[in-house]
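Hi U.,

Before I forget, here's the chain from the pilot set. I'm dumping it here mostly so it's searchable later in email.
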Amino acid sequence: QVQLVESGGGLVQPGGSLRLSCVASGSISNIYVMAWYRQAPGRQRELVATLPSVGMSNYKDSVKGRFTISRDNAKNTFYLQMNSLKPEDTAVYYCNAEVRTYDYTSRPYWGQGTQVTVSS
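Structure:
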C-alpha cells in the first residue's frame, strides 16, 4: 500500500558527510511526521530526527548541529544530511513516516534500512 525506500548509505571516513534519502510511494494522501531512526549492533533502535508536516524539526542531542532533516513534499521524499560524521554514528538508518492513505487510515511505515559505517 505504501512503501518507503532509503538510499545513500555507505562507508565514510570520520569527519565526512553522507546524505540519506527516503522516497515514499503508494496510495499516499498525506504524510504527517517524517523521521529517521538508527540501530547500532547490540543496541536498541533510537530516534535521530523528526520533521512534522507543520512545525520544527527535532534532533537527538548527539547529532544536533551535525545532522539536518528536510523534506520535499512534492516528491514525497525526505532526507537526512549528515556532516562531521563520527564512528559512533555507525548504524543501520531507517526512515519512518506517519502516512494517511486514500482510504482515510493513518499509520506509521518503515523503510528497509541503509547501512552507514564511519571508519578510517
